[in-house]
Amino acid sequence: MYYNFFVNKTSSILLDNGFYKGPEYNGEQWYLKIMPPVLYAIHITDSNNYTQDSKYISYINSLYEKLKDCRCENLVCLNINFSIDITSKNEKEFAYNYFSNYFYNSFSNLDVNPNIHNVYWIFSADEERLLFPKGQPTKLKGIELYFNWKKYEKSETSSIKIYDNKPYITYAVIVINVLIWAYINLKGGENFIYNFGTSRQGLLSGQVYRLITAVFMHQELGHLFFNCFSLYIFGRETERILSRFNFVVIYLLTGFLASLFSALIGGSLAIGASGAIFGVIGALAAVSRMKAYEAQLMDYFTLVLYIAVSILIGFSDPRIDNTAHVFGALSGFISQYLYFKYKYSHKNNEQK
Questions:
Q1: Which of 13, 51, 140, 208 is 20 to 30 Å from 225 by CA-CA measure?
Q2: Which conformational region is residue 234 in: left (phi greater than 0), alpha (psi within -120 to 50 degrees), or beta?
Q3: Domains in the chain, start-ordered, CATH in brackets?
Q4: Positive/negative CA dihedral, 69, 286, 307, 255
């Protein structure tokens, strides 16, 4: 296997899983991924071309200076050394000489900073797999899977693409919510809510539009603030990693279904974006479940726990439309999960 082939194949996998290319130096490629409070930096190098320690340290320091801009506190540098010589049979001998005499000695001063963590792995070109020098972790947030090509390609969701969008739609929805809230409180008042809020009576009268219009309506300032704040946290992350079309469909579909079940089960007049927001969180949990993706330090278990606790709290306050929360979260998770299953399993079958 040639080094260029290794870099191209690895690059494709990393880019599909939320990494982006950092600036090159000395012909070596870096891939970065922001997962607050950690910035992950993957450094790929060829063992035949030793990295100049001064340039490496300079590059690391430049990344460290940008941590605050990335909302991060720690920098994890994963150094992948491509080697045509090292195999599992001579791993100990080669690894000891290379890492002891080169990396550990040259870059030992980096370890003085407790916020910079260096990891060193070897990719054996002969065996097409990672080798882990003594004392180095064998797992790192699932990144090790991206270099185990046979296992990765057999994965049902290996083709799922993680985007890196700017969350413009999320910001636009927040602005719309604020403008409608201002209109309701300054001009529309009760009549506007009565005409466009979700209700069983309105639905039975054929006014299906209420199932969507109610999603963008708030009356109390506290209700508006909490929903917009939740949308800012979860909406931005979900829009960032999904296609924008996918995000819009999830938001409107789950908001529609949450309003529908709220009208059918609750019956009373209801407004608010919380059903759609829980739908977004449910979709984010589906991504986390299928891609082992960690969003803002929230893995699959944490997201599910957040949904469960929020719903339990909702039962303690009769003013909270918990029906919308439950069906919003369920519809978000199920619809996103089924969409991924169909889209990518269908694509994989076509490739076969």
A1: 208
A2: alpha
A3: 3-154 (3.40.1350), 168-351 (1.20.1540.10)
A4: positive
d(CA 200, CA 116): 57
Beta-bridge mates of residue 64: none
pLDDT beyond 50 at 77: yes
- The answer to whether the CB of 107 falls within 8 A of the CB of 53 is yes
**Partner residues linked to 117 by β-bridges:** 76
Q: Where are the alpha helices (DSSP H) in the chain?
A: 3-16, 53-65, 91-98, 105-106, 149-154, 168-183, 189-196, 200-204, 210-213, 221-230, 236-241, 244-261, 274-291, 300-314, 322-351
Transcribe 217-263 into DSSP letters.
Answer: ---SHHHHHHHHHHIIIIIHHHHHHS-HHHHHHHHHHHHHHHHHHII
Count Cα atoms within 13 angstroms, Cβ side, for 320.
16
Reported as a pLDDT band with limits 50, 70 and 90, residue 35 is: confident
